[in-house]
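Researcher: We plan to redesign the surface later, but first we want a full-length starting point. Tokens attached.
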């Protein structure tokens, strides 16, 4: 019996040794996955979380955009990554998750915190054959290398610039009118201090300017009406544009009132509002900019 145990132990040790020898280096794995741009960035930053050289024994899950994903970035986006101080590091950090996670750990609806404090939301569209992490589609799961697990993505993830409220108040997207209305309607706590996630359809400056003067005056003087309109633009849950691919309805935080989604050659909300800019990721949700202001069906009662 003892000799059998010894043989079993020897075989096990040999097996483990072979597995260790067979495990790819992170650099080799990234080359195999057609992710040489990501590898080049990791080497330039000397990011040992990706390269597998951590001396503290910490393991990581790395969300890896393919070379094609980087090629989809606009020239301005690529230039910003190279020139804006700290942006490249923050963007790469948004792709790194502490600990080793595998495909079975990514349940739809789960929110995962990255190593630099950003949020990754897992969701599956109507067919459960695809999984998205924020707005990026998973191409391959569970690619192991020394010290890391790689998950291959078709899109470079954004490093969110703050909460929904912080992005609304910031200068980048020109959403100050909506931000001021959020303050007046006392919805700033919801969009800044709560985890959500929320999807906010934000009318552009032109959309507000195109409203009749009587409606604008009513919004300015009637706080209750303003709060209703703001709440009607907020959906509880994180929805990226890839999920707005069929006719249906979206719930809002304004009671039982819904937004109708119709899809023909493009996407329309309530058969009027089109999408101008989509998938602006925030720490507690996502913003889509639309070209019309949305109103619930009881608007006549509210301002009558």
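Model: Full-length starting sequence:
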């Amino acid at each position: 019996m003892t000799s059998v145990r010894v043989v079993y132990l020897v075989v096990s040790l040999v097996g483990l040794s072979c597995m260790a020898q067979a495990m790819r280096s992170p650099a080799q794995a990234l080359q195999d996955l057609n992710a040489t741009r990501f590898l080049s960035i990791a080497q330039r930053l000397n990011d040992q979380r990706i390269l597998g050289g951590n001396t503290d024994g910490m393991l990581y899950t790395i969300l890896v955009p393919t070379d094609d994903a980087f090629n989809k970035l606009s020239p301005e986006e690529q230039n910003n990554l190279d020139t804006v101080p700290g942006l490249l590091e923050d963007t790469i950090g948004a792709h790194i998750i502490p600990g080793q996670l595998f495909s079975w750990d990514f349940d739809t609806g789960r929110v995962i915190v990255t190593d630099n404090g950003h949020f990754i939301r897992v969701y599956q569209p109507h067919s459960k054959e695809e999984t998205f992490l924020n707005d990026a589609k998973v191409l391959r799961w569970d690619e192991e290398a020394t010290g890391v697990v790689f998950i291959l993505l078709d899109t470079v993830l954004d490093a969110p610039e703050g909460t929904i409220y912080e992005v609304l108040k910031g200068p980048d997207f020109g959403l100050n009118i909506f931000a001021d209305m959020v303050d007046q309607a006392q919805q700033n706590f919801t969009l800044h201090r709560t985890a959500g996630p929320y999807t906010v359809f934000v009318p552009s400056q032109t959309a507000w300017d195109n409203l009749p003067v009587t409606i604008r005056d009513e919004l300015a003087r009637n706080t209750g009406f303003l709060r209703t309109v703001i709440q009607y633009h907020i959906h509880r849950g994180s929805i990226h544009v890839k999920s707005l691919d069929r006719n249906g309805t979206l719930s809002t935080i304004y009671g039982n009132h819904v937004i109708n989604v119709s899809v023909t050659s493009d996407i329309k909300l309530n058969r009027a509002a089109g999408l101008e800019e989509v998938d602006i990721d925030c720490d507690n949700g996502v913003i889509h900019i639309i070209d019309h202001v949305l109103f619930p069906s009881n608007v006549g009662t509210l301002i009558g």
